[in-house]
Every structure is written in C-alpha cells, then in structure tokens.
Amino acid sequence: MFNRQKSLNTDTSLEQIVSIIGPGAVVEGPFTAKDSTRVDGTINGNVTISGSLIIGFDGKINGTVSALNIYNAGEIHGNVTAGGKVEISDTGKIFGDIISKSLVIDENAVFQGQCTMTSDKSSAETAKERAVTPKE
C-alpha cells in the first residue's frame, strides 16, 4: 500500500507540519514538539508530540514515543502511546508495546510487542446508547 513512489496517506490533511527532522539529521536526547512533526532522520531519545507524528521511510526513533496520532513508515525501537491512531505502513517497524484507540498494520509491516486498545466506550456500548436514545 505504501511505497517510495507514494507519499504517506495520513488523516492529517488539515494539520500543518511545523517541525521536521530531515534525512541525515540526528537528535541526541529527548525531543518535544507542540505541533505535528515529521521525522526522516534519527532521534535517540524519548519523543513527545502534542499533534501528529509522521515517521518517513528513513526515519528512526530509539526511545518511547507519545503523540496524538502516529504514522510510521520507518522504525521505532521503544513503546508507543497514541491518543488516537497508530498506523504502520508496509515499510514500517515497531519493536515495543503500543497503547492506542486505533491500530492499522499494513501487510509486510513489522510489529513486535503487545497492543492495548483504549476507548472511552466500546462500540457496543455506543450502539446501545443510540438505540435507547429517542430521536427528535
């Protein structure tokens, strides 16, 4: 689905990427950003992003990762926490545990770890509430 000819298909079309770690760049130590970020280089340290995080084909993170949404076409060695969605493309690799509301893993992607799905309510509970609530 994802390959070098196509760009990452993300749901961040309305979000502006403010921070970019370019190819060949290496960040040593923790990295924190307020807005959406794209990583095409290497970060050796924990990453905390308030917006979405996009890891490109050559991107690599060695440390825990926390963001609203995470789209990975590169490599993560560490635990991942997302308030929304984690998506691993066919070139993506995650070696660590994932906590998120939604997880998408493409064919040929690598995921070694455990996954915990979180949600305020299950879809069954939401459907039950909708069925009971009278329509106006």
Kindly describe this structure.
This protein is mainly β. The protein has one domain (17-132). The chain has one helix and 18 strands. The protein has one helix at 123-132; strands at residues 17-21, 26-28, 31-33, 36-39, 42-44, 47-49, 52-55, 60-62, 65-67, 69-72, 75-77, 80-82, 85-88, 93-95, 98-100, 102-105, 110-112, 115-117. The strands form three sheets. The protein has a six-stranded parallel beta sheet with strand order 1-4-7-10-13-16, with no helix packed on it. Strands 2-5-8-11-14-17 form a six-stranded parallel beta sheet, with no helix packed on it. A six-stranded parallel beta sheet has the order 3-6-9-12-15-18, with no helix packed on it. The termini are far apart. The relative contact order is 0.14. Mean pLDDT is 86; it is low at 1-14.
Average pLDDT for all residues: 86
User: How large a portion of the residues is in β-strands, by DSSP E?
Assistant: 35-45%
DSSP helix fraction: under 10%
User: Major sheet: size, sense and barrel closure?
Assistant: 6 strands, parallel
Quick one: overall form?
Answer: elongated
**Total helical elements:** 1
Detail the poorly predicted runs.
Answer: 1-14
What value does the Rg take, in angstroms?
16 Å
Structural class: mainly beta
* Strands ordered across the widest β-sheet: 1-4-7-10-13-16
Task: Write a concise keyword list for the protein shown above.
136 residues, mainly beta, six-stranded parallel sheet, 18 strands, disordered N terminus
